[in-house]
Design a protein that fits this description.
Pfam family, one: TonB_dep_Rec_b-barrel
Number of strands: 58
Organism: Alistipes shahii WAL 8301
Low-confidence stretches: 1-23, 103-114
Distance between the termini: 43 Å
CATH class of the largest domain: Mainly Beta
Mean pLDDT: 85
CATH superfamily of the largest domain: TonB-dependent receptor, beta-barrel domain
Family: Belongs to the TonB-dependent receptor family.
Keywords: Cell outer membrane, Ion transport, Iron, Iron transport, Membrane, Receptor, TonB box, Transmembrane, Transmembrane beta strand, Transport
Shape: elongated
Membrane topology: Multi-pass membrane protein
Structural class: mainly beta
Oligomer: single chain
């Protein structure tokens, strides 16, 4: 491969040929000792100001040059440098051309000059100069690269007039010499995948040794336009975004997620459940937005049209940049930069429709429920008089059912949610120096439960100013989010209502307060003016400055300020069903009906960082060094007030309360965290074949104990580009074959500051001599350290013909895990936080994409990926024995019917513990258990529990296609998971441990044991007396009978779009017009039948979107 090189580090500036001539020096002084020819030519260029053009292959390997010249003419120096080589030179105007001698001519003899020199400047669409753009004369191997200001100058041979401009991440252009005075390159979305954005600097992917996945805005848009997490869930299987089986599709619930496995024990509650507090999720990745830390909530509420790319940093070589916060991985989000120097207005609008998905429910209808009650014996009594009453009641209900009463309660609180989203972006750009972009967005997400909504209103101002080698950029963002939870209450309350109860009063047709006797109608609560709302307002200002001191040296600085204010109101009037209990029957309790909970919170973040990076090419060598530091402070506080006594439902304000809630008082939490860190990175590449990355970060944080303020993170990575080896370079089949490996140590500090510090509380109920006392609320541990994660990773990136393959194997060990250690009660405390225990995560990740067809009018791509993870506890602290004993006691409780969480060496952290079961004895209808010694018994003993499964899937992945033809686009994605298990709580709670007075699963009728000799999966319905006269009415406990394999296949997304031909829409003054249609969560096939979305149902969604640019 031929590459004509002009030294990138020489800082040529935009100039005319005559100006360049005036700057040249014709006599120089030099001294060389065993120098390479490339180094000699570079020195000549630096001292003279000439442009020097040469073929890199021609000068490669020429070295051992030693001579000295003092105040010598340039030609004399060149003659000496080229002595004994097959090279010659020519000088014309401001350019020296080195070429292989033809016919043995004199190296110093003047050559025929090309007929013209073409000069120009290359920038991006915002007017920023692009350094290192490859500029090639079409049809030849001759070319140059642009300098630090984007300037270039090249000699055009006779008969040649076109130049090819190419740069990583940008669309290549072929232009005639007359069009090259100012060349603007446009970013190429497909090429963005070849760049790794770390949030601190940007690296070429070919020389990067870390494991990172880059997702472009186009890839995000192909799977969903709802929010970032919805798209990531369908694209990147290594990032496990879990379905919330309780909250389903609730638009106001943040998803839980983990990257490459669980690394931390769940943190204990602070005892103050502040609404809207999403801090300290121990397994959550770190989020970086435009170089600054941000929250998952902010990311979920982002306008997706603003996103340029998302990079997921996985292994140590990639994430060690973020030191003690990077153990769980890092997700880097870059928003779109200013696009050009013309005024543009872009509008994106969409209508989103959400439809409830109730396919997981299998409840009885009115007749089935009545029959289940009859079998249970609800209408049977040994007392004759009681039997008469029960028979009358049964016959009355039967008549109503036969008359058509069959209330489908599940539909009552639901709707088809119709939301809408609007984004307006205005770009102002009549100057190459000053650019501005203003974005406004409004997003209304309508949930499938009536009254459930999330509304986000935001505005962003992005200003960029360039002055010579200085760049200043500021992004100001203001957003307001309001989340309204449904006044219709808990969806589970509707699932348990009997279908033979009426939802409305048959006399008035109005919603009845009581569904039956003293059973409250949950629909009635929605008519009372309940309030359950959360709001927050955030203001973020991110400032970035850059100084290109030399072509090799760049200094950058960032300053970020973020302020957030949140409020939450939860009001229930006196007639609400939660007060319709016997506890509120007395006169004094009547005055306490009605409640109000008010939460207020605020937080602020300020951070500053400064970095210097140095990049230099010489010959086959490339060196990149980055060093700098960061300082930050975060403060957070929240307060909570409880009040009661609201006789009037119209007084939805806490000031109308009669009193503070009984045994309640205002409570709150607060924290302040400060940190400082220093970062150093170095990257070296030889001949684009051998690459090394080194990272070291030293951090100090107030989160650590006083004895361990400082902590270190480091990584080392290597990569080998086999495709650049001489034996593979001259072939077209294997386009890329990179092998990489890395190791490193990072940390996790997703926990509360109160875990470390000595925290005191006041005795508010008593005084001593008029003074208020204080007591230590937690035992501090000044020796507490950060959790450490040691990562090892090997991987390969391969492109063969039309196929692209990526493979990673990782082995991670987390130690110093934060756990509760039991201490003597004589200290005044039961436990103290300490660093104990180790957990290992091992896994494999693989991706494959194949281009079936690629042409000028479109493409057709197939893709698939899979991620496998195995989590094991390898060294459990002795202190967790007390925790396990507590869990075992809970398992022994006869009222407990769900598995407890027990930790044991050699077992996964998310293991499902249950007593082995052989099923239901066909003779007696009782469950047969297996003891630890292998004997069989009818008696349940929690001490016989074994690991029956793993609640997280062992593997998950996706597959699909993306196609485009003549402006039409179609893509589909399916996701799958398997290898894990789930404890089927639906079978336990709605088939066996049923409260027959409420609705139950249909399997109560068809799957339970009823007669001797019957093979059945479920026990006999109701209580009974065995042949020995023993009464059996205990609850079903945690057994392996209900641990089922969890394998799922989901048709997760479908998108169809059409982008109009620009020539057609230009007649109506449009630059771009695109129509799109999306469907998400279309269908799911599962190996387990379990109710999903028990508090808030799941939903299918579709969206129609229009984008236009003027």
């Amino acid at each position: 491969m031929w590459l004509l090189a002009i030294s990138v580090w020489g800082a040529p500036r935009q100039a005319t040929a005559s100006e360049a001539y005036q700057q040249r020096r014709e006599r120089i002084s030099v001294s060389f000792r065993n120098a390479s020819l490339a180094e000699v030519l570079q020195r000549i260029k630096q001292q003279t100001g000439y442009y020097i053009l040469y073929n890199s292959d021609a000068v490669r390997g020429i070295g051992g040059i030693s001579f000295s010249k003092a105040d010598a003419p340039v030609r004399e120096v060149l003659d000496e440098a080229l002595r004994g080589t097959r090279l010659e030179y020519s000088i014309d105007d401001d350019t020296i051309v080195i070429r292989v001698r033809s016919g043995g001519g004199n190296a110093s003899a003047p050559q025929k000059a090309p007929d013209k020199v073409v000069s120009g400047r290359v920038t991006d669409t915002a007017g920023a100069p692009l350094v290192g753009v490859n500029i090639l004369i079409q049809g030849t191997a001759t070319g140059v690269v642009s300098g630090s200001d984007g300037g270039f100058s090249i000699r055009m041979p006779e008969g040649r007039d076109n130049l090819i401009f190419s740069y990583i991440g940008y669309v290549s252009q072929t232009l005639s010499s007359a069009q090259t005075r100012l060349v603007r390159l446009v970013q190429d979305e497909q090429e963005i995948e070849n760049v790794v954005v770390t949030g601190i600097f940007t690296r070429k992917k070919e020389s990067y040794t870390g494991s990172a996945t880059t997702i472009t805005s186009g890839q995000l848009a192909r799977v969903s336009n709802r929010n970032v997490f919805e798209s990531l869930k369908n694209i990147e299987p290594s990032l496990y975004i879990m379905d919330n089986t309780l909250m389903g599709s609730d638009p106001n619930t943040l998803p839980d997620m983990q990257l490459r496995g669980i690394t931390t024990f769940p943190s204990e509650s602070t005892g103050v459940n502040i609404k809207g507090n999403y801090q300290n999720r121990p397994n959550q990745p770190l989020f970086i937005l435009d170089g600054f830390e941000t929250t998952a909530e902010k990311v979920m509420d982002m306008d997706m049209t603003r996103i340029e790319s998302i990079t997921i940093l996985k292994d140590a070589a990639a994430k060690a940049l973020y030191g003690s916060k990077a153990a769980n991985g890092v997700i880097v989000i870059e928003t779109k930069r200013l696009a050009g120097n013309q005024e543009l207005v872009t509008y994106t609008g969409s209508i989103e429709v959400s439809m409830p998905d109730l396919t997981s429910y299998n409840l009885c209808n009115a007749w089935e429920k009545l029959e289940a009650e009859r079998i249970e014996g609800v209408y049977t009594s040994a007392n004759p008089q009681t039997q008469v009453d029960l028979t009358k009641r049964y016959n009355a209900l039967k008549a109503q059912v036969l008359g058509g009463l069959d209330t489908y309660w599940l539909a009552k609180p639901l709707r088809t949610g119709v939301g809408h989203k609007h984004t307006l972006s205005v770009e102002l750009g009549d100057s190459r120096k000053l650019r501005a972009m203003i974005d406004f967005s409004y997003n209304n997400v309508a949930g499938v439960m009536k009254g459930s909504e999330r509304t986000v209103l935001s505005g962003d101002v992005n200003v960029s100013y360039r002055k010579k080698n200085f760049l200043f950029r500021n992004i100001l963002s203001v957003s307001n989010t309001r989340s309204d939870n449904s006044p219709w209450g808990d969806f589970g309350d509707y699932a348990r209502m009997n279908p033979y109860w009426s939802a409305v009063d048959p006399q008035t047709g109005q919603i009845a307060r009581w569904a039956y006797d003293e059973v409250a109608n949950p629909m009635y609560d929605a008519t009372l003016g309940t309030l359950d709302r959360e709001t927050y307002t955030s203001v973020t200002d991110n400032f970035y400055a850059e100084w290109q001191a030399t072509e090799a040296l760049k200094l950058t600085a960032r300053l970020g300020i973020a302020v957030k204010r949140s409020d939450a109101d939860e009001f229930y009037p006196a007639k609400h069903s939660k007060f319709a209990t016997s506890a509120y029957e007395s006169t004094s309790m009547q005055l306490r009906k009605g409640s109000y909970q008010l939460d207020n919170g605020k937080s602020s973040d300020i951070s500053g960082e400064i970095y210097a990076n140095y990049a230099k090419n010489w010959g086959r060598h490339y060196l990149y060094v980055n060093a700098g530091g960061r300082i930050a402070e975060n403060t957070y506080s929240a307060y909570q007030h409880y009040a009661e006594g609201f006789p009037n439902s119209q007084t939805a304000d806490i000031t109308f309360a009669r009193q503070y809630a009984q045994d309640k008082k205002p409570v709150g939490i607060s924290s302040i965290t400060r940190e400082i860190s220093f970062l150093g990175t170095a990257s070296y590449s030889y001949d684009d074949r051998y690459n090394v990355d080194l990272t070291f970060r030293e951090s100090a944080s107030s989160l650590y104990g006083a004895d361990n303020r400082w902590s270190s993170a480091w990584s080392a990575g290597v990569a080998w580009n086999l495709h650049n080896e001489p034996f593979l370079r001259d072939q077209d089949v294997l386009k890329q074959f990179k092998i990489r490996a890395s190791a490193g140590l990072t940390g996790n500090q997703n926990y509360d500051t109160n875990e470390v510090l000595a925290t005191y509380l006041y005795y508010t109920g008593a005084t001593y001599h008029g003074q208020t006392g204080a007591y230590l609320s937690k035992m501090p541990n000044p020796a507490l350290k950060w959790e450490q994660r040691m990562d090892y990773n090997v991987g390969a990136d391969i492109t063969v013909h039309r196929a692209t393959i990526a493979f990673d194997y990782y082995n991670s060990v987390t130690e110093n895990m934060l756990t509760d250690v039991v201490i003597p009660t004589s200290t005044g405390f039961d436990t103290v936080k300490d660093n104990l225990g180790k957990v290992r995560n091992r896994g494999i990740e693989a991706k494959l994409s194949y281009t079936l067809w690629q042409g000028k009018q479109g493409f057709f791509n197939l893709f698939g990926s899979i991620a496998y993870n195995k989590n094991i506890i390898i060294n459990l602290s002795e202190s967790l024995k007390a925790y396990n004993e507590k869990m075992m006691a809970q398992a022994q409780d006869k009222s407990n019917s769900t598995p407890v969480l027990i930790y044991q060496d050699g077992m996964p952290m998310n293991a499902i513990w249950a007593v082995p079961s052989l099923g239901i004895d066909p003779t007696t209808g009782q469950e047969i258990y297996v003891r630890k010694d292998g004997t069989l018994t009818y008696e349940y003993d929690a001490q016989d529990q074994v690991v029956a499964g793993i609640s997280d899937p062992k593997y998950r992945g996706n597959f699909g296609f993306a196609a485009e033809y003549k402006g039409f686009g179609l893509s589909a994605t399916c996701t799958f998971l398997g290898g894990g298990q789930r404890y089927n709580t639906t079978l336990v709670n709605k088939v066996e441990n049923v409260d027959i007075h409420y609705n139950v699963d249909r399997r109560v009728l068809y799957g339970r044991w009823q007669t001797p000799g019957q093979n059945a999966m479920f026990k006999k319905l109701g209580s009974y007396t065995d042949e020995n006269g023993k009464q059996h009415d205990e609850k079903t406990r945690a057994t392996t009978r209900f641990v089922q394999d969890n394998n799922e296949l989901t048709f997760s997304s479908l998108s169809l779009y059409y982008e109009f031909n620009p020539r057609l829409i230009s007649k109506i003054r449009l630059k771009r017009l695109k129509l799109a249609f999306y469907m998400n969560n279309i269908a799911t096939l599962s190996s387990i039948r379990i109710e999903r979305g028990t508090t808030y149902p799941f939903a299918r969604s579709m969206s129609f979107q229009l984008t236009g640019t003027f």
